[in-house]
Design brief:
globular; five-stranded parallel sheet; FAD/NAD(P)-binding domain; alpha/beta
Length: 372
């Protein structure tokens, strides 16, 4: 027999937006249930921000040591090149993720949030069924907060599989690829590309736009491009990708029309992320869409009364702290507060070399908005 729950607030997704919303709602006295099919922590903690920063940290330390081969300006000298045990580094990274995952579970437990492990499927805007290892749980809530997150976006001409990997697989490789081709010069591609370059891989970056980091102010990206050039990263901007040729090489048309073949042990596709909108009954909920994203207002309200959406599900910027800010705000609005969300107040940090930090409107965005 199915268990039936009727909480005040139902949160779908245990990532940054979801677990923050659930904890805040419970702190404010709202009976709250959170449903998550995977590990608590979501993309940021399990396969995104946290593991990538761990890898970046390890790559920085390795590069500092490698710089001492033959002697450096500080008088530190090594006789031979250091070795990198990537499998051991990944194990260390996974240990960090495991500790933080347990920490999120502890926070939810202390906040008295009921966590239902399983996949929720909605039959209407406020009712879902969850298949768990212990049986079926039916949930009907007064308020529903959707925080389903996102996944790496694939390329039609270069689907994931084999040597074509996403950022998820790149963070769990057993061996360092001798050569790595990266499709997309956004922050995910460049953060990982720079880390792998520091670890000793030959890195090639292929980007359709005419510059790196297209979402950032161009002036801020120039030092990053200079670092890439000095480090020997092959950079093809304004390029067109034709998929794999009959020899398994990447067919690329450069900005000047030249056709080249790029050989790589691994091909990392980082053209962006897409919201997870399939398989949980979105079509049964009567929500409006804004392209591939769930449409919301500046309070994260959807077209359906008392159904809210936060995080990557609602569009750019796809940042963990944006999701957390939206999740906390929604919980407080449900509890009676008057709040609104302004994406321009959210800082964005790109962990390239050097790092880039932005907040507010870029100069071009300010001009477009009518500000001098």
């Amino acid at each position: 027999m199915a268990e039936t729950l009727r909480p005040r607030v139902l949160v779908i997704g245990g990532g940054m937006g979801g677990y923050v919303a659930a904890i805040r709602a419970s702190q404010l006295g709202l009976d709250t249930v959170l449903v998550e099919k995977d590990r608590l922590g979501g993309t940021c903690l399990i396969r995104g921000c946290i593991p990538s920063k761990a890898v970046i940290h390890a790559a920085d330390r390795y590069a500092e040591i490698a710089n001492a081969v033959g002697g450096n300006a500080l008088g530190i000298a090594l006789d031979g090149k250091p070795r990198i045990d990537l499998a051991r580094m990944v194990k260390w990274k996974d240990g960090i993720v495991d500790r933080l995952n347990k920490g999120v579970g502890g926070l939810l437990d202390r906040a008295k949030v009921r966590v239902v492990p399983g996949w929720a499927v909605f039959s209407d805007a406020k009712t879902c069924r969850v298949e768990t290892a212990d049986g079926v749980v039916d949930i009907t809530a007064e308020h529903v907060v959707l925080a389903t997150g996102s996944e790496p976006a694939p390329l039609a001409v270069l689907p994931f599989g084999g040597n074509v990997i996403s950022s998820t697989e790149a963070l769990s490789l057993d061996e360092l690829p001798q050569s790595l081709a990266i499709i997309g010069a956004g922050y995910i591609g460049l953060e990982l590309g720079i880390a792998f370059k520091k670890l000793g891989a030959a890195v090639t970056v292929i980007e359709a736009a005419d510059r790196i980091l297209p979402r950032y102010d161009e002036v801020l990206t120039r030092p990053v491009r200079r670092w890439l050039q000095r480090a020997g990263v092959e950079l093809y901007l304004g390029a067109r990708l034709g998929g794999l040729d009959n020899k398994g090489k990447l067919a690329v048309e450069t900005s000047d029309g030249k056709k080249i073949a790029v050989e790589a042990d691994k091909i990392l596709v980082t053209i962006g992320r897409r919201p997870l909108t399939e398989g949980w009954g979105l079509e049964e909920m009567g929500l409006d869409m804004a392209g591939p994203f769930v449409k919301i207002d500046d309070q994260c309200r959807t077209a359906m009364r008392n159904v809210w959406a936060v995080g990557d599900l609602v569009g750019e910027p796809m940042l963990a702290h944006k999701a957390a800010a939206q999740g906390a705000m929604v919980a407080e609005i449900i509890a009676g507060a008057r709040r609104r969300f302004d994406a321009n107040s959210v800082a964005a940090i790109c962990f390239t070399e050097p790092e880039i930090v932005t907040a507010g409107l870029s100069p071009d965005e300010a001009v477009a908005a009518g500000f001098e």
